[in-house]
Amino acid sequence: MKIGIFGGTFSPPHLGHLTSAAQAVEKLRLDKLLLVPAGTPPHKELPPGSPTARQRFEMAAIAADGLRMGDRVQADDLELCREGKSFTADTLALLHERYPQDALWLLMGSDMFISLQNWYHPEQICALAHLAVFSRHGAQDLPQLQTQADHLKETFGARATVLELSETVEVSSTRLREELARGERPAELTDPVYGYILRNGLYGTRADLKHLTDEELRCCSLSMVYAKRHAHIRGVEEEAVRLARHWGADEADARHAGILHDCTKYLSLAEHLAICKEYNVPLDELEQVSEKLLHSKTGAALARHLYGQNEQVYWAIYWHTTGRPDMTLLEKLIYLADYMEPNRDFDGVEELRRLCYEDLDAALTLAFTMSVEELKERGKDIHPNTQGALDWMLTHGKGQSCQ
Ligand code: ATP
Predict the structure, then answer these.
(1) Pocket (CB within 6 angstroms of ligand 1)
(2) Largest alpha-carbon pair distance within the chain?
(3) Which of 77, 142, 65, 76 has its CA nearest to residue 110?
(4) Which H or E element spans position 82?
(5) What's the CA angle centered on 246, arms 241 and 248, to 5 degrees?
(6) Which residues contact 253 (CB under 8 A, 6 or more apart)?
(7) Ligand 1, residues 133, 136, 148: which to mutate, most atoms within 8 A of Cβ?
(8) Closest ligand 1 atom to the C-alpha of 176?
(9) Which SS3 state, helix, strand or coil, does residue 320 take?
(10) What is the DSSP string of 136-169?
(11) For residue 171, which atom of ligand 1 is closest to its CA?
């Protein structure tokens, strides 16, 4: 295997890092790329009040996941587990032990490469890994980088490749920290990394989580889940707003419920149970062992207690997985938006979409019928609230149709 290692402070990780990393993976045909946040950076003094190393690692993990390259690009916390300065020579030695048969490729931007002869044990670095350097500023740096590559080859026997990237992003973490401290929203941060920064109050941001703008709330929610769920969350938000407009529900409530409905989707069972305990959320036997059922309860709890959402939003999220008998209009809309938002694709989805805008109760009856059938086919327990919701619709569904 060819394994890339991209070290840095990543405080915070930005589009400059990500654009270069993604291109390096393709150009070098790397099987794996590890983003390695420095535990204690040897080359840079961290400003007072900086995020912890763990927080920088978590931001790097969110940024890596956002590249949507699966396991191929991941953040690695190996430097966080070591005492003292995080020297690259030590990191490469550890990675060589971990992957003895594989070729290591150390990636870096021009600023780091130019001073490599001054790093701790450059000869070890050059012996343990190929070097790949890319310019931070476009093509004008390339001759200088090639001269340095030749120098490192003569001095340390380095195997160095100068990568010409088709796209570079002129940005530094330093500039982004300044913008964040001034209350700006830097364009070179991905939404989830920005959301993580807001949730944790990093870099002098002092967002009141209970009074976020829609964009800030969206970023916070996206920062809590894997990138593969982002399109669905955006889809539910858009569909919920369309449905609210159509049926005369509160559009802001629909938007907020759509944004937050899945925010706890990837928590562990223990994390769900801790939230339920903290906010006194009662659970039945089925819910106590099912993350799928729990995520609507814990999502609702965080929507109310962390993000200051109102009762309507709380209950719309609370019931979005099982449903219940006699649902409110907003509860129906969020349940249905989750079921048939534009990214959903299953037999019958077009009919369900049509009904959602013509006869809401018929749509809900169809959705519960399909849900119950699917659960039966898969041999899963049907939650009493879902069966109750279907039974209620079959006896009380009054056909809320569009006039
Ligand atoms: P700071 O502003 O805090 O010094 P930085 O933006 O330079 O941070 P680092 O985390 O220190 O970011 O950099 C990690 C690695 O990413 C280094 O190899 C660096 O050269 C490279 N790098 C940083 N910014 C860019 C960019 N805009 N384009 C390409 N590579 C970059």
Answers:
(1) 8-11, 16-17, 20, 44, 108-109, 111-112, 136, 168-169, 171-174
(2) 84
(3) 142
(4) none
(5) 90
(6) 244, 310, 312, 313, 316, 330
(7) 136
(8) 2
(9) coil
(10) SS-GGGHHHHHHHHHHHHHHH---EEEE--S---
(11) 27
Angle at 8 between CA 217 and CA 47, to 5 degrees: 70
Report the distance separating Cα 104 and Cα 253, nearest Å: 50
Q: Which two tokens stand for residue 81?
A: 């587990």
- The residues pairing with 74 across neighbouring beta strands, listed in sequence order, are 34
209 Cα distance to chain centroid: 18
pLDDT tens sequence across 77-126: 999 988 888 999 999 999 999 999 999 999 999 999 999 999 999 999 99
Residue 158 in tokens: 């380095």
Index of the ligand 1 atom closest to the CA of residue 20: 29
Indicate the helix (H) or strand (E) that contains 391: helix 384-396
Amino acid identity, position 317: I
CA distances in angstroms from 229 to 205, 336, 355, 370, listed in the order given: 26, 17, 25, 22
CB of 109 closer than 8 Å to CB of 65? no
Give residue 140's pLDDT: 83
Report the chain (403 residues): mean pLDDT per 10 consecutive residues. Answer: 97 97 96 96 84 97 97 95 90 97 97 94 97 88 93 96 92 96 97 98 96 98 98 98 98 98 97 97 90 95 98 98 96 98 96 97 96 93 93 79 38
* Residue of minimum CA distance from atom 8 in ligand 1: 173
d(CA 100, CA 232): 40
Q: For residue 8, how far is its CA from the centre of ligand 1 (angstroms)?
A: 7
Model confidence over 66-80: pLDDT tens digits? 999 999 999 999 999
Tokens linked to 397:
């569904």
60 CA distance to ligand 1 middle (Å): 13
Give the pairing type, strands 130-134 and 160-163: parallel
